[in-house]
Request: fold
Amino acid sequence: MEIIYREPRTGKTTELIKKCAEKGGYIVCLDENRANMIAEMARNMNVKIPFPLTFHELITNRYYARGIRKVYIDNADELIRSIAVGVEVDTIVMDKCNDCGKQQIEIKHCSEPKRIFQNENHIS
Reply:
């Protein structure tokens, strides 16, 4: 899993659109307004991607695509806060993928990638 972590308006969603077009899968976002915006961004980039799913559609299986194998989460922090509804989210914890073996999580912060490996407790 890769985490793209940068300041707002620095091309994170644009990067997701390019990855989705290249590797397949669906972008998942907070709501329909954001899905429409992402679809419009892709059209303006002349890139073909499936219409983005909302977080609600994904978790309730209310989508019409079959065999979704890969998703790209846009603004995961917003999705997490939307679950908490008005409660501050102080910390999140992520498990390693059990069926991926030695999973590497790559956090891209600005231009310097940082990596977390399954046996490390911190970002290096």
Summary: The CA atoms of residues 51 and 92 lie 29 Å apart. The first strand starts at residue 2 and ends at 5.
